[in-house]
Amino acid sequence: MKSDPDAGGLFAPERVAVVGATEREGSIGAAIFQNLVDFAGDVVPVNPSRDSVFGQECYPDVASVPDGVDLVVIVVPPSIAVEAVQGAGEAGVRNVVVITAGFSETGPEGAQREQELRSVAEEYDLTLVGPNSLGVLSTPLNLNATFGPSNALPGSLSFMSQSGAFITAVLDWANDQGIGFKDVVSLGNKAVLNESDFLRYWQDDPETNVVLGYLEGVADGRTFIDTARDVTQETPAVVVKSGRTDAGAEAASSHTGTIAGSEAAYEAAFEQAGVVRAENVQELFDYARALDGLPTLDSEQVGIITNAGGPGVMATDAVGESQLTMASFTDATLSSLEEAMPEEANIYNPVDAIGDADIERFETALDTVLGDDNVGCAIVISAPTAIVDFGELATVVADRQAAHGKPVVACLMGGERTERAAELLGEAGIPNYFDPARAVGSLDALAVQQDVEARSYEEPETFDVDQERAREILTEAADRGARRLGVEAMDILDAYGLPIPDAELVEDPADAVKAASNIDGDVVMKIVSPDIVHKSDIGGVAVGVPQDDVADTYETLVTRARNYQPDATILGVQVQEMVDTEAGTETILGMNRDPQFGPLVLFGLGGVFVEVLEDTSVRVAPVSGREAGEMVDELDSAPLLRGARGRTPADEAAVEEAIQRLSQLVTDFDAILELDVNPLLATADGVQALDVRLTIDPEEL
Amino acid sequence: MKSDPDAGGLFAPERVAVVGATEREGSIGAAIFQNLVDFAGDVVPVNPSRDSVFGQECYPDVASVPDGVDLVVIVVPPSIAVEAVQGAGEAGVRNVVVITAGFSETGPEGAQREQELRSVAEEYDLTLVGPNSLGVLSTPLNLNATFGPSNALPGSLSFMSQSGAFITAVLDWANDQGIGFKDVVSLGNKAVLNESDFLRYWQDDPETNVVLGYLEGVADGRTFIDTARDVTQETPAVVVKSGRTDAGAEAASSHTGTIAGSEAAYEAAFEQAGVVRAENVQELFDYARALDGLPTLDSEQVGIITNAGGPGVMATDAVGESQLTMASFTDATLSSLEEAMPEEANIYNPVDAIGDADIERFETALDTVLGDDNVGCAIVISAPTAIVDFGELATVVADRQAAHGKPVVACLMGGERTERAAELLGEAGIPNYFDPARAVGSLDALAVQQDVEARSYEEPETFDVDQERAREILTEAADRGARRLGVEAMDILDAYGLPIPDAELVEDPADAVKAASNIDGDVVMKIVSPDIVHKSDIGGVAVGVPQDDVADTYETLVTRARNYQPDATILGVQVQEMVDTEAGTETILGMNRDPQFGPLVLFGLGGVFVEVLEDTSVRVAPVSGREAGEMVDELDSAPLLRGARGRTPADEAAVEEAIQRLSQLVTDFDAILELDVNPLLATADGVQALDVRLTIDPEEL
Asked: Which of A411, A620, B20, B57 has the fewest CB within 10 Å, making it most exposed?
């Protein structure tokens, strides 16, 4: 894969060759060639079995084209597609779109073919889209190198989709809605270029305001997060990720062979990357249009002006369910409104200008509300009345938005009578919806994006840890054939600065007594064996052992373990200081590896909170300080860490540091496949890891 | 308010008088009169200051109209509106629509006027809509007695709205969408007729298939639940209730003066009443159209047929997030599909007929899938392709739905090219959406309604209780001036069959010793004072008191209470058997009174589950056995009652019985304003109420 491909060559070529161009009706080769007829540059058909295609001279291969080409579109059958790509590469062309299907989506033979394609692309350093793609499209040069039935209107949205059919549906619909695009790409099987490459390209494209995506998976989770995090600081990215549910993920796998990362991982990754997630097609375009057309949101306080009480209440409800809040007007605003409105009107937010409101009353109210420093954005709602002409109202809304520079959305409610008004509003970038909830949703998308842009990315902190010591412990375990480690691995946590109780692993009763003597008071003793997972269940844990009983207890624990499982490897007994778990809150700090995103860190409160209520939060490692804080915030049970019900508040900073240190550990060692610190006891004085389990893959050490 | 008004007279009159009819441009009196021009019956203008209105002879009052009228529409100014209504009543007219505004929505004077209007209506037994109404409309007789700008298309939806402006917006939009109505009513201030009356009327109206409502509140919660529960067994009712959020409720109150019941109460009431709740306008009409046009759903298994993988995945995701499930096809279905489909197609659900699918392939696939007994309904998805004509596909979809009698919804995706197809589908009652999620939402509404119709309403059980004893305890407390009761009221629970520990309230140390001697082992002793709420905090509770210490402990508790609050009324000390709370799960069973719905019963697990996680369920009393079961089911923490994490499962039947017995208690006594049994200990052997607090209103005794 190219580290920094210039996707620009795909969207702004000068000369395009269609390899496999033909005149055969219903063929893809004919459809693409005909779609390219209005391209601002040159289009050259390539096909060894034809002299001409639709009246243009046809060449046997790319190398034979006089003056060369800078983009090649491949539509030949799969059996000769790789060869055709190689021909393009040999002819010095860098930009290739492989329309041809019959690659990894069809089974092992196709997967092998895709591997060959990838090798050729690497050899010739190709910027390659597909295979199994509908093609690419870019409106500034009127480049339509797709075989779909519709072209796109010009616009400032750029759209990538893992479903070519979805592109055809969207373009047909968008043309009708007057929604335009800058670039569109059908990602196909993503053999070379993937979503991260296009995100990166569109970030630097001055003609792209918003990136839209339909994805069923991402090719490389880490690259996606790093790229998107950077891109979304300036260019909003709205994505529908399908395959969210188990059934959907299965369907996606059968559709594009996507190996599903977990839904939790995608949710965390999109959040960390600042991607605005849309749940469905309607949200995808509602959000994209708002982010494209409206001014930046400076504050989340909404002012509502309506001539209809009911829809005003609906809008207010929707605000209550969003990230936005209802603005409180200043006294000056209230005075102005009182003066301008009839007595029966409501001058408080939502402003009800009542049914006989004319254009002037709407204009005054909107102007007054937008002029209020407490108001960050506004919604104008109108039911159809004999007095209000929607076209005039649309003009007023557009003018007032321009004058105040604050986002305004409209609900001019009705049927055909709203069409002209919607067009006028659309020209000013203002969406109009019948449903007040959708209008609020549009403003809410601005608020989400504002938060993304406002947060500054902080590098995850690198703590001063003893990585070598951790590696030694892991290597030692691997050398003795262990795959699952328990308390004997507590020192790995210690090496990464996670506090653990005083404890020692001893191999005979005498050492146990010695170890205990270094500890004040009674001790806890645990059998240590990689083969015995549930130590408590077999009586392998003794709590509150007086110093005098330590030797006997050693023998008892070992005997019980031997009786329970004669062939178990017994590493010894851990002698540990007593910890008062009642003095704090038991939490769980865990990690597993996601196939797409790598190490996922999980945090939650112990016991029923994780196991029954599933109240956990997840982030892709490495986790920054801000993200660790969010992981605590997100828990419904967070108040229990913070002193709810008369508890002593836990040291939250210590909890967050523990999350980050664990994140560093699992990022440093690919060999750690799963890890659970359970419990991590959180008290007012800090945290302490009381037990650990991990699974390792020695191959990765 | 009439107990059984015949709203039919409002929608199917023979002769209508418009009191206040005029020709003045822009006036409501002119607008209504002109909207009535196409009415199938007669329309008569009434106005003492005119001889004729738009060429029709005008009469000074209703009594003077020759041959009489059977519906009167009042549009005179508020000052003479009540008089005009009285005139109609005296003339023997029963059906009145009061358009005139300026009643309770405007302040105290208006409220007084509304009270007079209500008295007149009672006196003449009027079936009265309004005041402050847009009017009524019914398509079979082409009756448009509204002053809105649009008439309605004929149809089988009947619509009531607490916002007149919302009706004008909806009609304008619906006409454009081809959505028709049977009756429409603007409820106005609901001085006489309210939502329950219209629900009841439309239940028996053969021309109404689905009732739609926009409500900001209900006039009488109990009547609403009882009526709607009955109606929704046969006629679906889809309602947007606005004022869901705090901000929205405040806006609703300012709009229509609605006194908000709590959102939790509405949610419970709608659930108990079988009302399908829509969150926004889009859902309101999506659900209504599905329930109106589609056949009944027999099973929730969905089959999906698509020519586009991506949208198929989106639909599958939406199914995963709905009440529906993806169907598993039989082997016979899979064989048939395998035979009919090309090799690259996916024959498993969602069926991907791939991009080159023609009409025949779609038809075969749909026919095969609908013929599968495992399939209850289907979604047909098509991206635009050169091969598929959407009009033809629409015909196939409608035919196959008719042939199999199973609901089918469509996602023929695109812009203008879908319009003709959408019309054809619409004629067959089949909705077409671009967004697969909305198509799934339509089918999901059928599933919700199917559940409503499938459940048989069971009368809440009436347990054999000692109501008199409970009354005596309440009266006695009221007589001594108490408003807040504590453990001294435990016997109320006992009288209603809620198990309580052995306990006795004693007033001196000697009686305490005697009481303790009737109990085995150690006892619990608690100070009993209506003035001391947090007994534990002041050392007013002694747990594990040996029999020998009972007398001393009595003195200690009383002394502590006196020191803490010298003026506190001390009723004595409760001597109670020790209960091992570790042996079960602490739950909370509570009740408060909602302004709209009366007694609300609440259940949850104790401690953090209620206080921090707010994991509770609520129902309007009286609560049936099924509803009590649902209250337990709904809790996220329910597994903890059922043996999660090695617990002994609690006796769930006993929990449900306790909920019902408490429901009976609070239904029997309006005097109980609030009540909390906390904890109600649930063990494998049953439940036990360990403490109680209640607030009473002696006026209601």
From this structure: B57
Question: Beta strands of B266-382 (E only): which ranges?
Answer: 276-278, 301-306, 325-326, 351-352, 377-382
CA distance B372 to B352: 17
The confidence band for B1, taking pLDDT boundaries of 50, 70 and 90, is very low
Q: Which residues of A touch B319 (CB under 8 A)?
A: 245, 247
Note the pLDDT tens digit of each residue in A651-679: 999 999 999 999 999 999 999 999 999 99
With an 8 Å Cβ cutoff, are B309 and A256 in contact?
Answer: yes
Q: Helices in B220-372 by DSSP H: which ranges?
A: 221-231, 246-256, 263-273, 281-293, 309-320, 331-340, 359-370
What's the distance, CA B200 to chain centroid?
15
Residue of B31, B173, B309 with shortest CB distance to A415: B173
Residues in CB range of A577: below 8 A, 6 or more apart: A501, A502, A503, A519, A520, A521, A523, A524
Could you give the CA distance from residue B170 to residue B183 in angstroms, rounded to a whole number? Answer: 13
Residue B168 has its nearest CB partner, among A318, A383, A436, at A383
Which chain A residue has the Cα nearest residue B177?
A415
Closest residue in A to B252 (Cα–Cα): A313
Nearest to B655 by CA among B634, B681, B618: B681
Q: Are A602 and A583 in contact (CB under 8 A)?
A: no
Distance to chain A for B247, nearest Cα, Å: 6
- Smallest CA-to-CA distance from A199 within A240, A235, A173, A171 is with A235
Size of interface A-B (CB pairs under 8 A): 266
Q: How far apart are CA B560 and CA A318, in angstroms?
A: 52
ipTM: 0.90
d(CA B266, CA B260): 9
User: Is the CB of A320 less than 8 angstroms away from the CB of B244?
Assistant: yes
Q: Answer yes or no: pTM beyond 0.80.
A: yes
Q: For A388-494, where are the E strands, in sequence order?
A: 408-412, 484-485
For residue B92, the one-letter residue type is: G
**3-class DSSP assignment, residue B137:** strand
- Residue with tokens 């719905």, as numbered in its chain: B597
Cα distance between residue B175 and residue B154, in whole Å: 10
Contact call for B434 and A173, based on CB within 8 A: yes
* Rounded distance between C-alpha atoms, residue A316 and residue A656, angstroms: 37
Smallest CA-to-CA distance from A207 within A157, A260, A145, A251 is with A157
Contact A145, A198 (CB under 8 A): no
Angle in degrees, 0-180, between the axes of helices A164-177 and B309-320, rounded to the nearest 10? 90
A52-56, A339-343, A640-644, B265-269 — which is least confidently predicted?
A640-644
Residues of B in contact with A244 (CB under 8 A): 317, 320-321
Amino acid at A547: Q
Chain B interface includes A312 (CB < 8 A): yes
DSSP B666: H
Q: How far apart are CA B85 and CA B88, in angstroms?
A: 5
Rounded (10°) angle between helices B436-454 and B309-320: 30
- Are B282 and A438 in contact (CB < 8 Å)? yes
Distance CA B89, CA B117 (A): 11
By three-state DSSP, how is residue B475 classified? helix
How far, in Å, CA of B410 to CA of B414, rounded? Answer: 12
Question: How would residue B258 be classed by pLDDT, with cut points 50, 70 and 90?
Answer: low
- pLDDT by residue (tens digit) across A2-17? 345 577 889 999 999 9
Residues A385-428 have pLDDT tens digits of 988 999 999 999 999 999 999 999 999 999 988 999 999 999 99
**Strand A572-577 and strand A503-506: pairing?**
antiparallel
Residues of A in contact with B321 (CB under 8 A): 244-245
List, as ranges, residues 74-133 from A with C-beta within 8 Å of B: 106
The closest of A445, A450, A410 to A427, measured between CA atoms, is A410
